Amino acid sequence: MTKTNSTQTTGAPTIGGGAPATPRTPEAAHGCPPSATSGTTPHVIGLDLSITATGIAFPSHLSGPGTSTIRPTAKGDERLTEIRNWLAGDIAAADLIVIEDLPPVRANAIAALGMVHGVIRLACYDHARAFALVPPATLKKYATGKGNATKPDMRMALYQRAGLDLRDDNQVDAWWLRAMGLDALGHPIVTLPKTHRDAIAKVAWPKAVAR
Predict the structure, then answer these.
(1) Whole-angstrom distance, CA of residue 4 vs CA of residue 43
(2) What domains can you pick out in the chain, each with its CATH number?
(3) What is the DSSP track for the chain?
(4) Would you state the pLDDT for residue 178?
(5) What are phi and psi of 22, to 5 degrees?
(6) Cα–Cα distances in Å, from 87 out to 54, 105, 184?
(7) Closest Cα partner for 6 from 162, 112, 115?
């Protein structure tokens, strides 16, 4: 697997680290992130899933943006195992995983991405971790104020709001997914207008996320 990373070197077994949690029921996995009133910053990761290049955003103690891209080296469906294994430790260590939902396109065009979503959602359940699905248009609305924003619009919004100049669109989306999750938990990392933040209410967050 090839991993392009803004803050860490290739070869680390996981991004967030941490031992796997003891699996619980699916209901527990999908409903128990920290409350928005908790005092500590939750451990939130953002995932822009892809069979060829998955973007990830994660807590970073370094000076960089805390983003990375996973590019599987296997062929065919073996890439699913590679992606799942790479992300398993990060999922186990997270309080909330924010995933960009499947776009509304033809089924034959979305088949591979749907399989990636399946294995990653299953990993969330296996590790009893809460996750949320953010429709692409809702993420664009949160980041730019426009539900039909382009990829350059998303990159420019990141630069203007956070001073980060990321050229990998997968990492840009993952960064905004993580930012949206932290905002929903009451720990915003970027200041946005109310018209942008209204998009948070459009997401079906796990029940402990108070909006």
Answers:
(1) 22
(2) 27-202 (3.30.420.10)
(3) -EEEESSS-TT-S-SS--PPPPP--HHHHTS-PPPTT-SSPP-EEEEE--SS-EEEE---SSSS--EEEEE--S-TTHHHHHHHHHHHHHHHH-SEEEEEPPPS--HHHHHHHHHHHHHHHHHHHHTT-EEEEE-HHHHHHHHHS-TT--HHHHHHHHHHHH------HHHHHHHHHHHHHHHHTT--SS---HHHHGGGGGS---TTS--
(4) 98
(5) -70, 120
(6) 10, 26, 23
(7) 162
Which residue positions in the chain have pLDDT lower than 50?
6-32, 37, 210
Lookup result for tokens 């203007």: 160
Contact 1, 86 (CB under 8 A): yes
**Locus of tokens 């946005």:** 192
Residue 175's nearest CA partner among 121, 88, 98 is 98
Distance of CA 47 to the CA centre of its chain: 3
Confidence at residue 14, expressed as pLDDT on a 0 to 100 scale: 31
- Under 8 Å CB-to-CB from 196, ≥6 apart: which residues? 141, 142, 143, 144, 145
**What gap in Å lies between CA 172 and CA 164, rounded to an integer?**
9
Query: CA-to-CA distance for 110 and 146, rounded, in angstroms?
Result: 24
